[in-house]
């Protein structure tokens, strides 16, 4: 790599705002993560509840969403919800696409949050639930006071995986016309095909930098929060 | 823990309450469905002319079946290629040479952290520009390469964690009967690890099949792209996407069920523990082994 190549490559960053594109991915991830966590928790409670119809509804949701490609869901949000049904979440075009994509990401990852929480419930020993029942707690108090607090701690590592997947999947919002990192990479390469490799590595490293700390954090959290048994 | 331990076998009062909650839940679901249907109807999305194309043969022969075929072609190529990639780098991560382990480890961790779409776009534009291939083949090659690097890395991790999940006695016994470490890996440990990891491998196949849909973004004519073309031709994009989604769900659900069944069957076939999930990036990043 001679100096000319490097200088040319660096000049690209004056024309394109790479950080702003990554910021869109981070924002998409944040909104979608909140939605997925809320919806996923409700689904997980439904799936462990004593009411068969709730269990069935939760299981159906998870099966359907988990087996649908995220790309279809995002395309559906934009072409279907907005294009055909006329659902607008903002007068601004870009904001509208952004919100639709965030909803698509959240709805899809809620299924995985639900499964992560269920795996957390599995880390709670049976004796705990039996003890909760023995002192007279019904399903809801037992779940809220005894099982779920421990399940969340046990689910930190799998939830971290869902978050990592969500960060990476935020690039799929490109299918919904959201201007985020993968779209900018495409534009930059098409504009300057001579530095394609360097451009790719900048974006790839961007995601490594976003993903690795989340992995480290959730691993150490899962160790510190693990209930000693 | 079985979820059913959370509550007692219901008595008469609990059963009455449950009937009530059941009815209420059913009503809520029905209400959501009704609102959705009314909304769809108001937009004219329930018109017969938007749905009848799916009863015509040419919709299937012209759009959906070729799309499905291209989806399956990309998935099949990616499965074979990532299997090879996974075995090579999985063995690399277990090699006795430290340098090989470090290089294989770096490759695997890198490709697991980079979004598949980013790789697909890179290969799509890179290969088109290099002009090595017939332009018609470029999208397929880009899709397969992107899927292979990511899922191959996951397979490599599966090989590694599968071998680590085996009891130590397996290797000790292999060494005692005079095998070298490499032979012990190839003949004793990896085959067992693969059997133990079959359920996880099978569920990773679902990931590959789903991710082929990313190809639509780089002009690969798979099922989603076909559905979009059909939808814009007939003006029934909503319906076309729905049908494509149903096809994906049926395929993937079948695969998932097969994986679940495998999980219960292979449990007895190996001394390792079978897991139904790919090893997590979160735990790996901690570098605990």
Describe the structure.
The complex is a heterodimer of chains A (229) and B (289). By secondary structure, chain A is mostly helical. Helix content of chain A is 80%, strand content 0%. The mean pLDDT of chain A is 90. Chain B is mostly helical. Chain B has one domain: Orthogonal Bundle (MetI-like fold). Chain B contains 12 helices and no strands. Chains A and B meet through helix 3, helix 4, helix 5, helix 6 and helix 7 of A and helix 1, helix 5, helix 9, helix 10 and helix 11 of B.
Brief sketch in words of this structure:
Chain A: Belongs to the binding-protein-dependent transport system permease family. HisMQ subfamily. By secondary structure, chain A is mainly alpha-helical.
**Helix vs. strand class of chain A:** mainly alpha
Q: What fraction strand of chain B?
A: under 5%
In helices, the fraction of residues of chain B equals: over 70%
Give average pLDDT of chain A, whole number.
Answer: 90
- The overall number of domains of chain A is 1
What summary fits the major beta sheet of chain A?
Answer: none
CATH class of chain A: Mainly Alpha
Q: Please tally the helical runs of chain A, counting DSSP H or I stretches of 4 or more residues.
A: 10
Percent helix among the residues of chain A?
over 70%
Please report the number of helical segments of chain B.
12
As an assembly, this protein is: heterodimer
How many strands appear in the DSSP assignment of chain B? 0
CATH superfamily of chain A: MetI-like
């Amino acid at each position: 790599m001679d100096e000319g190549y490097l200088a040319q490559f660096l000049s690209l960053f004056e024309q394109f705002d790479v950080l702003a594109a990554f910021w869109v991915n981070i924002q998409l991830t944040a909104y979608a993560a909140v939605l997925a966590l809320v919806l996923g928790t409700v689904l997980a409670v439904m799936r462990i509840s004593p009411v068969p119809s709730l269990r069935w509804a939760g299981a159906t949701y998870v099966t359907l969403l988990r087996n649908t490609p995220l790309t279809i869901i995002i395309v559906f949000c934009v072409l279907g919800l907005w294009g055909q049904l006329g659902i607008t979440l903002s007068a601004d075009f870009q904001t509208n696409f952004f919100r639709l994509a965030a909803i698509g990401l959240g709805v899809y990852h809620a299924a995985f949050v639900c499964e992560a929480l269920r795996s957390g419930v599995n880390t709670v020993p049976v004796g705990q639930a039996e003890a909760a029942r023995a002192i007279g707690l019904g399903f809801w108090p037992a779940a809220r006071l005894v099982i779920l607090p421990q399940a969340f701690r046990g689910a930190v590592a799998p939830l971290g995986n869902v978050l990592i997947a969500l960060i990476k999947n935020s690039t799929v919002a490109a299918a919904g016309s959201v201007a985020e990192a993968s779209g900018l990479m495409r534009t930059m390469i098409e504009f300057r095909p001579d530095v394609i490799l360097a451009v790719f590595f900048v974006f790839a490293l961007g995601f490594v930098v976003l993903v690795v700390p989340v992995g480290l954090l959730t691993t150490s959290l899962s160790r510190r929060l693990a209930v000693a048994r | 823990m079985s979820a059913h331990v959370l509550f007692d076998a219901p008595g008469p009062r609990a059963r009455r309450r449950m009937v009530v909650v059941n009815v209420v839940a059913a009503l809520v679901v029905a209400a959501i469905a009704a609102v959705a249907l009314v909304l769809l109807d108001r937009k004219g999305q329930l018109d017969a002319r938007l749905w009848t194309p799916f009863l015509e043969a040419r919709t299937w022969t012209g759009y959906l079946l070729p799309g499905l075929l291209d989806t399956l072609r990309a998935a099949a190529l990616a499965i074979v290629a990532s299997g090879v990639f996974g075995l090579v780098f999985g063995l690399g991560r277990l090699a006795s040479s430290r340098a090989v382990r470090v290089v294989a480890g770096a490759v695997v961790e890198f490709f697991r952290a980079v979004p598949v779409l980013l790789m697909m776009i890179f290969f799509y534009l890179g290969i088109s520009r290099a002009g090595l291939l017939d332009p018609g083949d470029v999208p397929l090659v880009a899709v397969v390469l992107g899927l292979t690097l990511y899922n191959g890395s996951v397979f490599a991790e599966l090989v590694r964690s599968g071998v680590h999940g085996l009891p130590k006695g397996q290797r000790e016994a292999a060494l005692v009967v005079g095998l070298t470490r490499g032979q012990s890996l190839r003949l004793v440990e990896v085959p067992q690890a693969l059997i133990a990891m079959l359920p996880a491998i099978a569920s990773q196949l679902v990931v590959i099949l789903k991710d082929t849909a990313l190809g639509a973004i780089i002009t690969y004519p798979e099922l989603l792209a076909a559905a979009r073309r059909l939808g814009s031709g007939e003006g029934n994009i909503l319906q076309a996407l729905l049908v494509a989604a149903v096809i994906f769900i049926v395929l993937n659900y079948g695969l998932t069920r097969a994986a679940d069944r495998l999980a219960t069957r292979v449990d007895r076939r190996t001394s390792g523990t079978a897991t139904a999930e790919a090893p997590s990036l979160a735990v790996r990043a901690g570098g605990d082994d």
